[in-house]
Every structure is written in C-alpha cells, then in structure tokens.
Amino acid sequence: MRHLQTYRYIDAVSKTGSIRKAAEDLNLTPSALNRRIQAFEEELGTPVFERLPRGVRLNTVGELLIQHIRGQISDLERLKSRIADLEGIRRGHVSIACSQALLPYFLPRQIARYRRQHPAVTFSVLPRDRAAAEQELVDYSCDLALVFEPARLAEFQTLAVVPQPVHAVMAPGHPLAGRDSLRLRDCLRYPLCLPTAPFGVRRLLEEAALRKAETLSPLVESDSFEFLRHYAMAEELLAFQIPIGLKPPQGPGDLVSRPLDERDLPAGALLLGQLRHRALPVASARFADQLLTAFQAEFAMA
C-alpha cells in the first residue's frame, strides 16, 4: 500500500507521455512529480521511463511494471467495493468501453435501471472501436467491453454472445423501404454511406461483397453511426446498423430498417466481456449480471 500513490503517478505519466502534463492533471509541480518517480526508480534499482526530447515513454521494465500497477489499483478498488457491500452500501464505479450501437438506447436504459437501485454507483461510458475497446480492458482503463465483431480476443473473457444481423437503414421514401428483407445485390444498386474500416459492420459488409465478387463504393464514409443515420435520411442513401442501435419507428417519417438476408451476410456477434483472469469489482460484476439478463430477455443469445 505504501507505493500506491506513486503507482498512480506512474500510471498517469504513462498515459500522458509527459511528466509536465501528468503533473498538471495531478495538481503537482513537474519537479515534485519527477523527484517522486526518480526516487521510486532508485528504490527499484532500474529506470522505468525513457526520457525523450519531448516527453517520456515506458521502457521494457516499465511495461512490466505498469501491468502490475494497474492490477494493484484494480484489486484495491475491488476491495473497497466489497467493504462497501459489507456495510450495506452499494458504492463503486463501473467503466465500460463499447461500440457506438450501445450508446443511444440500450446502455442508457440499463445504467438508469441499475442506478435506481444503487444510486451511489457512478459510470464511465467510453465509445471505442472494437480493437480500442479490447485494449482498454488490457490497460485496466475499463471493467467491461461491449464490442461488435471483436478484433483479437486474446485477453478477452467472453461473458455473453448476442447475435446481431446487419440492417440496411434508409429514408421511408427509399425504393427498398417497402421490402421485408434485402439481398446484398439489391443494396449495392443504390448509393451507400458506410462506417470506416475499423468497425465490425464495415468488415462484415466487405467480406460479404467479396464472396459475391462485388465492390463496396460508398459515396460518404464516417466513423459516426449517428451521422450516417442522419445522412441516410438527408440524401436517401443506404446506411447500415445493428438492431441494438436502432430506434423502433414511431411515425411515418422515421427511418426504416430492413435486415440483410443471412444467405448473403450472416449475423455478426456482439460480445460482452472482461479482461481474462481479472476479478471484477462488485459493482461491475453485478452490472454485468444485469446486462446478461437484459440480453436474454431482448435477444436470442448464442
């Protein structure tokens, strides 16, 4: 415990890559922060940072140390959460890295439901693409990740798999809006607006087009699904989304969504997960249990 504050300082410097910037965030002077780190390095017997002309970065020893530090900080937070539970007080913090589709509807409902029962619990929700969300787990920057078509899974302990077919999204006046489902070849006859390469929806569409010897040629690309939905309405282009991120139509002027035929594009997988071998804080573990229940009620889970 005696090194815990220094651990937090080293973690802050590693994230900013700058002693000056970390000192500002920690409300310290750069010289005081530098002395604290140098004293720790002397006690450890080796440097943990490379001093560069513009900032610092972890060396090989530092990379090993930072995983130990983040594990220690996580363990302490879990202990605090358990102590709060013993006192009958549901406290804690839940940090979630997630795909954009979870932001508009699903997560706000689930977080509000949880906080009605445990109002002392706080949340951080971090929109991330699939690779970045997994990295947030490895860095202990988040407790849970909700990602569509994850990129690696090496350190990902899967808690739930939720099938999500890709839907085409369009204005109600679009020529395809009257159909119940769509073949990929039908969609490719019309102008497209697509998410950029890091996103799972784009990868699934590209793989499906390749199997059909077709080419995706979007007129508009963006890393914002909200923008793509609005643009599909503005110019009557086709956009694409998964059901968990879609609002049910409420009037004749709302966006229309139609699933792509699974003969062309099988459903993708939305995964809920945590860092492998990590014991979650109580609040995060209980929120994960709530998400599992919600998924089972709303979707056919694999």
Structure characterization notes:
The protein has 302 residues and is α/β, with parallel strands linked by helices. The chain has three domains: 1-89, Arc Repressor Mutant, subunit A; 91-163 and 269-298, Periplasmic binding protein-like II (D-Maltodextrin-Binding Protein, domain 2), CATH 3.40.190.10; 166-266, 3-Layer(aba) Sandwich (D-Maltodextrin-Binding Protein, domain 2), CATH 3.40.190.290. 42% of the residues lie in helices and 20% in strands. It is built from ten helices and twelve strands. The protein has helices at residues 4-16, 19-26, 30-44, 60-86, 106-117, 130-138, 184-187, 200-211, 225-235, 282-298; strands spanning 49-52, 55-58, 92-98, 121-127, 144-148, 156-164, 167-170, 193-195, 220-222, 239-241, 256-259, 268-275. The protein has a five-stranded mixed β-sheet with strand order 4-3-5-12-6, sandwiched between helices. The protein has a three-stranded antiparallel β-sheet with strand order 10-7-11, with helices on one face. Strand 8 (193-195), helix 8 (200-211) and strand 9 (220-222) form a beta-alpha-beta unit. The longest helix has 27 residues, at 60-86. The radius of gyration is 23 Å and the shape is elongated.
Helix content: 40-55%
Provide the CATH topology of the largest domain. Answer: D-Maltodextrin-Binding Protein, domain 2
Poorly predicted ranges: none
Output the CATH class name of the largest domain: Alpha Beta
Tell me the structural class.
Answer: alpha/beta
Overall geometry comes to elongated
What is the CATH homology-level superfamily of the largest domain?
A: Periplasmic binding protein-like II
Sheet with most strands: 5 strands, mixed
Number of separate helices: 10
Roughly how many Å is the radius of gyration? 23 Å
Average the pLDDT over all residues and give the rounded result.
88
Strand content: 15-25%
Number of domains: 3
Compute the separation of the termini in Å: 42 Å
User: Largest sheet, order of strands side by side?
Assistant: 4-3-5-12-6
CATH architecture of the largest domain: 3-Layer(aba) Sandwich
Q: Helix-strand pattern, N to C? A: HHHEEHEHEHEEEHEHEHEEEH
Number of strands: 12
